[in-house]
Design a protein that fits this description.
- The structure is a homodimer.
- The N and C termini of chain A lie far apart (about 50 Å).
- Helices cover about 45% and strands about 15% of the residues of chain A.
- Chain A contains 13 helices and ten strands.
- In chain A, helix 1 crosses helix 2, helix 2 runs parallel beside helix 4 and helix 11 packs across helix 12.
- By secondary structure, chain A is α/β, with parallel strands linked by helices.
- Chain A folds into two domains: about 220 residues, Rossmann fold (3-Layer(aba) Sandwich); about 90 residues, 3-Layer(aba) Sandwich (Rossmann fold).
- At the A-B interface, strand 1, helix 11 and helix 13 of A face strand 1, helix 11 and helix 13 of B.
């Protein structure tokens, strides 16, 4: 578990693990709300609002499941994580609560609000040069080999995948109550595929639709080609910092391909429109990456059927950036 | 019920009515979340997030309780309401769902987002000249006497007070689960005192603290003097459009005085700071009036004791206004 590069075999995430994670999360945190949202075309979709988690994103789920499963000896040596900010805060939050030392490798161009929040949770932040092309996994490997700490990968980790799946367990129960049945389709923002794979394990009957920013749609291309693809060098700038992952991992890809998933890409303008729609219709602050799935729905790229759920995955965004988005015509 | 001026006797709102309203609301809508919020001083308060109601404010509660208690004959003649926007949307939402015609008297300087949302819910909007000093209750009286419609007053109505109290019933159950006990103190934005009186009936053991904008603190002055006071002519401008009520009603005042309430006033700068705090710490869009209670807490004007609840009462705010607030240093 100290070197989760794609070449290393990891145990497969399991549905049983998802259910166990869901029990642990239910004992820790209230369910996040599921809110109906009327679309301009008259349809209603069901929004699972993960931006209302204590750290402002679903990442608290996987971090909690992973860290609570560490042995006492592993806890004593600390944890290391790599993240632009949401996984960082999830791991920092769980580590503080469990009394575990946490070092988080973050890009030097991460949103200021995410850097500050991670430090405020007591984690040590180690910056790396994302624009300069420094490999964040190299930095993390150096930290773990120095200290014996456990690397908690943001998505390529079976516990993390299972933990994120707890979102789907909650969603199933809530939709049965609110929408009269299980979700038939769940549209979700996708970075490395941790949440998408977790939702798939949680909801065996649902279609899971991963959504990425244009140019960062390595998962969509991987699913289409059947082979893991990387984001191309020189990929365009995106406001979706949370979804800027270079490539998915085999354990995520195995779950996604087993379900025949197909990915969707959304434009930056579609993401901003979705942020504005959530602002005015749901009174929610959603970060760009957190609005990607809603962007696919509003952009007409995914159909809704009355039992379609949309994950609003995070809400950590700098005030100036959010002000600019909602001020746009 | 067609002329609820302060000189008319109305039945008193009752705790039994609050509990009946809570049952009706529970059958209609999911509970709004209660979220813990860490203050800069290290204390935690419990935020009841009414901005996440379908119309973006708690007003849906009182409107639903009132309209569902109308007779068939009353329903056929329609309803009239007066509101800067949140009660407007609450009545319009309930009326559409029940197939009742609704006319809403709104000030011509109401936030554009509230005017548009009220019309989108199918209500007929009748504008009056607030800056010009036109009496909104006169406009409403003319409409009701013309049509025989029932006036659903925004706060001076026993059903409306009872309906708003359902928020307190939910809060009590949620705090017992999350905070290990009933709320000891509930800090709430206050316009005419509908929510404050409803919360008092719902929570017989709690201290209820109504919070108003400076210069619009007629309830605080009324409670201090023992006699209903009006907002002075030439009161300062406030961004808290939802709290710009000229005076409370005897039925509200009776409940508030019976509990020995004392009111608090907050400055415009304190309100904006509270909106920014909710943005960055809870990822919520809260309108100025909806943030007044949090402003009192953050401004150190009300103490917290670990079981203090804060009502975030609404989130309907124009994008440009919200962008300006979060862009402030």
């Amino acid at each position: 578990m100290t070197n989760p590069s794609p070449s290393v075999d990891l145990r497969a995430p399991m549905r049983e693990g998802v259910l166990r994670a869901a029990d642990k999360i239910a004992a820790l945190l209230p369910q996040t709300p599921v809110m109906p949202l009327d679309l301009p075309n008259g349809d209603t979709v069901w929004c699972k609002v993960e931006s209302l988690q204590p750290v402002g994103a679903f990442k608290i789920r996987g971090a909690w499941h992973r860290l609570t499963d560490l042995t006492e000896a592993e806890r004593a040596m600390g944890v290391v994580a790599v993240s632009s900010g949401n996984h960082a805060q999830g791991v920092a939050w769980a580590a503080r609560r469990l009394g575990i030392a946490a070092k988080i490798v973050m890009p030097n161009d991460a949103p200021a609000v995410k850097l500050a929040a991670t430090r405020a949770l007591g984690a040590e932040v180690v910056l790396y040069d994302r624009p300069g092309g420094e490999d964040r996994d190299d930095v993390a490997r150096r930290l773990t080999s120095e200290s014996g700490a456990t690397l908690v990968h943001a998505y390529g980790d079976p516990w993390v995948i299972e933990g994120q799946g707890s979102c789907g367990v909650e969603l199933a129960a809530q939709m049965e109550c609110l929408a009269g049945g299980l979700p038939t389709r769940v549209v979700t923002p996708c970075g490395g595929g941790g949440l998408a794979a977790g939702l798939a394990l949680a909801l065996p009957e649902a279609e899971i639709v991963p959504v990425e920013p244009e140019g960062w749609d390595d998962v969509a291309r991987s699913l289409a080609s059947g082979i893991i693809q990387r984001v191309a060098t020189g990929a365009p700038k995106t406001a979706c910092d949370a979804l800027q992952t270079p490539a998915t991992f085999p354990i995520n890809f195995a779950v996604m391909t087993s379900r025949g998933m197909q990915g969707i890409a959304v434009s930056e303008a579609e993401v901003r429109a979705a942020q504005r729609y959530a602002f005015s219709h749901l009174r929610l602050v959603i970060e760009p990456g957190g609005a990607a799935a809603l962007a696919a729905i509003l952009g007409g790229k995914v159909a809704s059927d009355g039992r379609t759920a949309v994950i609003l995955s995070g809400g950590n965004v700098d005030p100036a950036a959010f002000a600019a988005v909602i001020s746009e015509a």
